[in-house]
């Protein structure tokens, strides 16, 4: 799946011991939630949105510590 702000693929971050997460443009949040829900992937969404330097708002989706980040990335990649 392509990030609407950067026009690059969304990338799942595994912070090495921290939670697995990725930043999401607010404009794509519902679409991404539907995709994750459709694949039975559990997640939580940061309750606050933030925007820097006049750019569109973003938030973060968290998957926790014990998830398969490669599976999540595969689901995002399959969405185009």
Q: Brief overview, please?
A:
With 80 residues, the chain is of the alpha+beta class. It is built from two helices and four strands; from the N terminus they run ββαββα.
Per DSSP E runs of 2 or more residues, the count of β-strands stands at 4
Q: What top-tier CATH class fits best?
A: Alpha Beta
Quickly count the domains.
1
Corresponding CATH architecture: 2-Layer Sandwich
Query: Could you tell me the mean pLDDT?
Result: 89
Which outline best applies?
A: globular
Tag the structure with descriptive keywords.
80 residues; globular; Alpha-Beta Plaits; 4 strands; single chain; alpha+beta
What can you tell me about this protein's structure?
- The protein is of the alpha+beta class and 80 residues long.
- The chain has a single domain (13-78), classed as Alpha-Beta Plaits (2-Layer Sandwich), CATH 3.30.70.
- Helices cover 25% and strands 21% of the residues.
- A four-stranded antiparallel sheet has the order 1-2-4-3, with no helix packed on it.
- A hairpin with a 5-residue loop joins strand 1 and strand 2.
- The longest helix is centred in the middle third of the chain and has 10 residues, at 29-38.
- The radius of gyration is 12 Å and the shape is globular.
- The mean pLDDT is 89.
Helix/strand layout:
Elements: E1 13-14, E2 20-25, H1 29-38, E3 44-45, E4 58-64, H2 69-78
Antiparallel strand pairs: 1-2, 2-4, 3-4
């Amino acid at each position: 799946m392509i990030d609407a702000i950067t026009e690059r693929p969304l990338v799942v971050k595994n912070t090495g011991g921290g939670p697995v997460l990725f930043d999401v443009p607010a404009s794509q949040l519902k679409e991404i939630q539907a995709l994750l829900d459709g694949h039975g992937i559990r997640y939580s969404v940061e309750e606050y949105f933030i925007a820097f330097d006049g750019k569109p708002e973003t938030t973060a989706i968290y998957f926790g510590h014990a998830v398969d980040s490669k599976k999540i990335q595969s689901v995002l990649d399959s969405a185009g």
